[in-house]
DNA sequence: AGGTGATTAGTCACACTTGACTATATACGT
DNA sequence: ACGTATATAGTCAAGTGTGACTAATCACCT
């Protein structure tokens, strides 16, 4: 949740905006960095507002319904820097999602498992290709490009591991 | 949540046991594969019991309070195999935890960021070493060893990425 | 026989997250 | 002028996950 707070504060730091814009930006540009959903963003905005890290001004545009425009407060900026520093020193400890299945692989015939892993391997290679093809560029967020490289590296690592695992299974008596 | 169901069904498939044993086994042997907490395990057991995938028999031992012993049902075994197959073909899509901070790194002085990343690098190397040193061995769950290798590979990948990133930051005008 | 700490066994209130829903405004074709 | 599709802006019920708590038993010392 700290990560998500950091994200919202970071976006509001560069520009005041309302919930919709924030969610839109995340969906369009940061889908590879965060999977926060709209409803979560709104509820976080509400919480951050209540705790004084951001403040809302009601904007009346024509005869539209009123919208809230959120801006970061000084307290919010402080929190932003604190969370940013925390995030930068934080070790990534992966719990790869699919590894519980790997634990129980002996419950299926070896050849069937090899088939599934090959399927997974192919899908992962496709996904990797989609990252390699599209050179990303989020205007003022240079760091995003580094995260894309990060994920490419992780996919390659996963692919190597799968190949090695399949090889080893094949070699089993 | 499917992953967690798979884990519980898998453990009950090899042996009927109560909630405490399940949680204990996860904490002791599978801390590197799942981070499911005790309360979650109990609530899952309850749900799986209600939906007929497992069944509970009350065990009265001496004058202790009664405990529930859970066993997998035929429906549960079917579900187990279904989830296992799903898990094996499922692509891992990493959203590395710390990458939101990376996105905003330009908000801090370059040298400060390099300092933090070096700290993170050192911590990750330590963690990697702890995985490399202790040769793991979970008796009847041979697949666990493969997951350990998986995580070692991911740590190495992360380390490479950090080194590369730090290098690039250093090289910036 | 009494105290202390670990082990066994489990519950519960609370926080977080999201799918599905509401509702207005704007664009655009016909 | 009218439908209808899309963008804008947000809410809410329901599900998931867990820290903190309760409570009995056991091991061991003194």
Q: TL;DR of this structure?
A:
Two copies of one chain form a homodimer. With 173 residues, chain A is mainly alpha-helical.
**In what order do the strands lie side by side in the largest sheet of chain A?**
1-2
- Note the run of SSEs of chain A as H and E: HHHEEHHHH
Poorly predicted sequence stretches spanning 5 or more consecutive residues of chain A: none
Report the CATH architecture of the largest domain in chain A.
Answer: Orthogonal Bundle
User: Do you know the CATH topology of the largest domain in chain A?
Assistant: Arc Repressor Mutant, subunit A
Largest interface: A-B, 67 and 67 residues
Shape, principal axes of CA atoms of chain A: elongated
Defining traits:
7 helices; homodimer; DNA-binding; Arc Repressor Mutant, subunit A; elongated; two-stranded antiparallel sheet; 2 domains; 173 residues; 2 strands; mainly alpha; 7% strand
């Amino acid at each position: 949740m700290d990560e998500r707070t950091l994200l919202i504060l970071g976006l509001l730091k560069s520009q005041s905006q309302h919930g919709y814009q924030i969610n839109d930006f995340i969906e369009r540009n940061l889908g590879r960095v965060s999977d926060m959903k709209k409803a979560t963003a709104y509820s976080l905005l509400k919480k951050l507002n209540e705790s004084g890290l951001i403040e809302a001004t009601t904007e009346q545009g024509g005869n539209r319904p009123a919208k809230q425009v959120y801006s970061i407060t000084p307290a919010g900026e402080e929190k932003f820097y604190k969370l940013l520093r925390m995030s930068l020193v934080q070790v990534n400890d992966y719990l790869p999602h699919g590894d519980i299945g790997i634990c129980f692989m002996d419950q299926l015939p070896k050849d069937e498992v090899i088939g599934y892993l090959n399927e997974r391997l192919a899908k992962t290679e496709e996904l990797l290709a989609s990252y390699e093809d599209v050179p990303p560029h989020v205007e003022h967020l240079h760091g995003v490009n580094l995260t894309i490289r990060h994920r490419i590296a992780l996919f390659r690592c996963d692919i190597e591991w799968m190949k090695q695992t399949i090889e080893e299974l094949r070699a089993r008596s």
